[in-house]
Amino acid sequence: MRAVACAGRRPARPFTRPAVSACLIAVVAALAMLGQGDFTAAPRYDGAGYAVLARSLASGTGYRAIDHPDRPRHAHFPPGYPVLLAFVWSVTGPSALAAHLVSCLCTVGATLAAWWWFRGIYPRDVALALGLALALNWAWARTGSAIQSEPLYMLLSQVTIVAAVRAAARGGVGRSLALGGLLAACLLTRQIAIGLVLAVLLDLCLRRRWSMALSAAVVSALVISPWLAWLVVVGGEQRTQAGLLFAGSSGLPGRIVSQAWFYLQRIPDQITGPVVEVATIIRRTAGVERLANLWALVFSGVVIAGWLVAVRRQRRRLAALFPMMTLAWLLIWPYTEAGRFLIPLVPCLLIGAVEGMTGLVRWGKRSFGLGIPDRRVSFFAAVLILVLSLPYSGYSIITGRARARDAGNRAFDAACAWLAWHGDRPGPILTRHPGEVFLATGRQALEVSTSERRGEPDASPDAIARTIARHRVAYVLIDEDRYLGAPSGPLGRFVAERPQRVRKVWSSEPEGPAVAIYEVLPEHRAGAAGLLEPTSLTHRSFLRSRPFESQCPVVLVAMEAQLRQWCRAHLDWFVGPATNGLPCDHFVLDLVGLRFGGVLLLAGSGCP
Questions:
Q1: Sequence-ordered list of residues with C-beta below 8 angstroms from that of 333, at least 6 positions apart, any chain
Q2: What are 27-58's pLDDT values in tens digits?
Q3: Which among 397, 390, 552 has a CA at the least distance from the CA of 36?
Q4: CA distances (Å), origin 231, targets 54, 239, 455
């Protein structure tokens, strides 16, 4: 009898067990980030700004832009992510690897929280398929290891959604207070979280949880009130997020149309890979562009239709309200950030795609008699989404796209290396990316007004000259082509129009340099200021100023071209006749770091 009972029992499916599914999703997410991320990359762009603020907090100087000669108080980036980095670096020291690992932990947590949310909406097999699709998603995994605020915001937003669903279902004062704290944490990490706040409060109101919505709103307002007061006090001294919004308020109807079209094109790219972006921007041809736009319209229409279905169902309502509220805000925001704002919405995009494709599959069953059982339609749609997510993710892992993309910064890193090793003139650096220069060299830096920011004009040559005189700028670093579609900047025009004021001392290429360093001639600067230390930046003072830890080896790598050129000129003298005639690439150059009469001594190992 026992054998008969066992024979009639359904075989166990291990991946339907929560613990097994969670471990699988966590491992897949970690491997995807390991394959697509670059854990040696230094902070770039906004990440450098966050890192500078974290260094300031960790050193006890407050929330200040210590990369600027005036060390002003900061009001542009909210403090959530810099506080996390400051805490981590107070334990590990300034380390890019530690920052990358913290981002990975946040992303793994966000993936698990999203999967748990999926389990409350769909059957376990559908939730597992969606969890794997999220873990393997190219944008989610690539951003998940970056030194940016997105990984922390992805974690907080997904935990907030889970907490909101549970609080709405079970009630309780403690849950409403915790929900308000989570909403505030989201706002203090990314101000675009206003869309999530509105979505959660609206969902609570639609569920008639009036007191919970009020409690969460009050707690959230109280927690962020110190930051709001800081913005009021400090915001007049520099640009803020609100200032950028109002500065770019002209031409609002046209902006809404252009932003809507931009995000319609980017919604499918978040799941399938940057197909539309490549076809419409990078490799643009008329026929391919039309096909790509048609694909974007169809896929985005399916996702939006799925949201319209989800918004009518209580358990799935937040999956529609969150992206709808966020996109409504993004339509008036003057910047697209190349679609970065959509990355925290990937779980909602997956739900919208599943809901929309489920409707299409059911229509196909009725119209064409597709033999898919009704209870398996959602699973079929989720697996289809997973399959669509795989090709570009696999391609990105195999080809190392993230590492190849960071390789485009080598010329900039080489320029920073030159400044660190040879830039002996005291004074700050005038550059497009002051935070990165500060972290790489230990020298303070500043920027000028540029039309890259909506509502700001390009600084005129006279304005740049006044900035140089006021801050006693020593060098001007010009990099025009570090990212796609980068416009020509005012610094390049200043050098072209005022060549008598500067002298080129370094460039990445002999002809048509993408990155170049110009020394400001002494008669055009009033003195010296802006160093972190009173001594000039020789090799020893550079090490003493503790640049970003991960960039110490980057400095050596960035000087590789210069070292090879030097070795080719001195190869016989340098390594002896035994290696004469062999290419210099076969030698490992070890930088000793001693200077005698301006000559950099090197040591080489034998050829393999």
A1: 192, 245, 259, 341
A2: 999 999 988 888 888 888 888 889 999 999 98
A3: 397
A4: 18, 10, 20
